[in-house]
Design a protein that fits this description.
149 residues, mainly alpha, 2 domains, flat, membrane, transmembrane helix, DUF1468, transmembrane
Length: 149
């Protein structure tokens, strides 16, 4: 059995327990329901514990299987795509404040789509990048009233 396969679900279980304990230490509210501030973090902690336990059970059941996922991940053009996506994400974060949400999101998404889909689907790439950038800007800026750069 490869112990590293069980490391992540175990870590998530520990993290879920820590969040649950910390959630009970949140101060009670003076207005309205005194336990109101506790419900959301406790609910999320319980969900994290539940899903982590399910993940651990899944990994325990298939602990003897030969997994080729990591070897497949490191072959072909996948490592280049991962590296390029990370670089594009860094570029996006650097451009975001300088040129604003709309333009930087369009450039990031458009470039990423061209890398993934290729030049043959150039029209689809541009339409998706423009539509997503505009509608996400509209949703945040106009509908939700969030100030974007």
């Amino acid at each position: 059995m490869k112990i590293w396969k069980l490391a992540m679900p175990t870590l998530l279980l520990v993290l879920g327990c820590s969040f649950l304990i910390a959630s009970f230490q949140i101060e009670k509210s003076n207005l309205g329901n005194p336990n109101g501030p506790l419900y959301f973090p406790i609910g999320l902690s319980i969900l994290l514990l539940l899903f982590s336990f399910m993940y651990l059970a899944q990994e325990w059941k298939k602990r003897e299987e030969d997994h080729k996922v990591i070897s497949q991940l490191l072959t072909g053009r996948t490592p280049k795509l991962i590296g390029l996506t990370i670089l594009l994400g860094v570029g996006y974060s650097l451009l975001f404040e300088r040129v604003g949400f709309l333009i930087s999101t369009f450039l990031f998404l458009g470039t990423l789509l061209f890398v993934l889909n290729g030049k043959k689907k150039w029209m689809t790439n541009i339409i998706v990048a423009v539509c997503f950038s505009f509608f996400s800007w509209y949703a945040f800026s106009e509908l939700l009233g969030v100030s974007l750069p």
